[in-house]
């Protein structure tokens, strides 16, 4: 689906991401984890072309992403940041409709096919009954679903999510991640997301990439990556790992700061 090949990203003279490589297959859910300041969000922004990379390349379906126009990238890939804001009077359906504009010429209006896709996105995110509400009047979880609906209306093959559960309480975190899983399973959309919660990453990911100080520390399936050694080395925490036979995914119990 896409390949990141030895990319490096600098802010002024500071190196933030160094010689980073990985690939994501179609239909996978991949999570990027690591301590604060390790470069996770910068890596995602580089992949989406929101920040330039100093060296290396990203290939999207075999094509160097630098050779694609912004519209061509937007038809294939959509990124949602940690916190998104809409004008105070914007309704949910108006927001979701913006997802269709990468598929239109600048003078074209939305047609019936576009609106059918908008309503499909609202239905998939369980927002049909909220379509006329303003985004600003919604709860954090509802608002995040509205932005995901806009991304769905864009019909991307790849969805990039930068800490999608930040600022949300526990129930809304669960709601958003369950929605991501549902969309992945029903539509086959590839998902790459930055997560802080290790148990969320273990539960919702096919593969996990660990970032430390701008470099790839390790990657693999949740049961390969989520080890007491990794957590001690990367997070400086002692932990216990529990496996539940019915889930086949590890559960992480943090114990104390490692000495």
Automatic annotation (TrEMBL):
Describe the location of the ABC transporter domain by residue ranges.
2-238
What is the superkingdom listed in this entry's lineage?
Answer: Bacteria
Question: Which InterPro entries is this protein grouped with?
Answer: AAA+_ATPase (IPR003593), ABC_transporter-like_ATP-bd (IPR003439), ABC_transporter-like_CS (IPR017871), P-loop_NTPase (IPR027417), Siderophore_ABC-ATPase (IPR051535)
GO cellular component, as recorded: plasma membrane
Q: Which Pfam families match?
A: ABC_tran
Membrane association type: Peripheral membrane protein
Q: What SUPFAM superfamilies has UniProt attached to this entry?
A: P-loop containing nucleoside triphosphate hydrolases (SSF52540)
> What biological processes does GO assign it?
iron ion transport
Please give one Gene Ontology molecular function term for this protein: ATP hydrolysis activity
Q: Where is this gene product found?
A: Cell membrane
**UniProt keyword list:** ATP-binding, Cell membrane, Ion transport, Iron, Iron transport, Membrane, Nucleotide-binding, Transport
Q: What's this protein's name? A: ABC transporter ATP-binding protein
What is the protein's species of origin?
Cohnella herbarum
